[in-house]
Amino acid sequence: EVQLVESGGGLVKPGGSLGLSCTASGFTFNIYSMSWVRQAPGKGLEWVSSISSTSRSIYYADSLQGRFTISRDNAKNSLFLQMNSLRAEDTAVYYCTSTYPGGNYFVYWGRGALVTVSS
Amino acid sequence: QSALTQPRSVSGSPGQSVTISCTGTSSDVGGYNYVSWYQQHPDKAPKLMIYDVSERPPGVPDRFSGSKSGNAASLTISGLQAEDEADYYCCSHGGSYTLYVFGTGTKVTVL
């Protein structure tokens, strides 16, 4: 059974930092590109960042303005998102997703981790 | 890149068909055959329903179908069922920088 389990969410003050992790199982993690997609409360889905299977290619949404860093550890079947200089508008559920090899769609999704930025 | 445009809501009776539009630009929807659709029930993770414009993953009922013409894509649900009531999002490849762009989302209500 495929599983993506996010961890590390929580409450953080504006300007603070937080790191998210995602542990994958049930599929060959090291051949899938991985991504983070977020959803603000009551709002739609927003693509955040993607990383290729070898970490060679990394992409970010323009709106992040260099504040987030995506990384992965294929030996540990894990995906990470380091978030710095957090703002109220970063409050959202952050989903870990996997992109089918050679494809351009999100085939597996985690249950999400809630990040709340508030003083 | 701005979010793709979807209608806020659509509705239909059981057994009827509904179609959700997804309008983008030549830089996203019109430029690639990489449109996907996701179903999201309340407080649940999204689920892939259609990929590459019109392909269905294993396990997705064939009453879900997708198409594209120019800068607009569509998802049609035929033979609407109660369990189809959910939010639906389109997504397109957006090029080399904005890799993916999602639609604004459509709430499907089964009357």
How much β-strand is present in the residues of chain A? over 45%
Structural class of chain A: mainly beta
Number of helices of chain B: 0
Q: What's the helix count of chain A? A: 0
The largest pleated sheet of chain B is described as: 6 strands, mixed
Distance between the termini of chain A: 39 Å
| Alpha-carbon Rg of chain B, integer | 13 Å
This entry's quaternary arrangement is heterodimer
Structural class of chain B: mainly beta
Mean pLDDT of chain B: 96
Q: What is this structure's SSE topology?
A:
The complex is a heterodimer of chains A (119) and B (111).
Chain A: E1 3-7, E2 10-12, E3 18-25, E4 33-39, E5 45-51, E6 58-60, E7 68-73, E8 78-83, E9 92-99, E10 106-109, E11 113-117
Parallel strand pairs in A: 2-11
Antiparallel strand pairs in A: 1-3, 3-8, 4-5, 4-9, 5-6, 7-8, 9-10, 9-11
Chain B: E1 9-12, E2 18-23, E3 35-40, E4 47-50, E5 64-69, E6 72-77, E7 86-93, E8 100-102, E9 106-110
Explained architecture:
The complex is a heterodimer of chains A (119) and B (111). Helix content of chain A is 0%, strand content 52%. Chain A has no helices and eleven strands. With 111 residues, chain B is mostly beta strands. Chain B has strands at residues 9-12, 18-23, 35-40, 47-50, 64-69, 72-77, 86-93, 100-102, 106-110. In chain B, strands 1, 3, 4, 7, 8 and 9 form a six-stranded mixed beta sheet that branches. A three-stranded antiparallel beta sheet of chain B has the order 2-6-5, with no helix packed on it. The mean pLDDT of chain B is 96. Classes of the chains: A mainly beta (119), B mainly beta (111). Chain A binds chain B through residues 35, 37, 44-47, 50, 59, 61-62, 95, 100, 103-107, 109-112, and chain B through 1, 3, 32, 34, 36, 38, 40, 45-48, 51-52, 57, 89, 91, 93, 97-105.
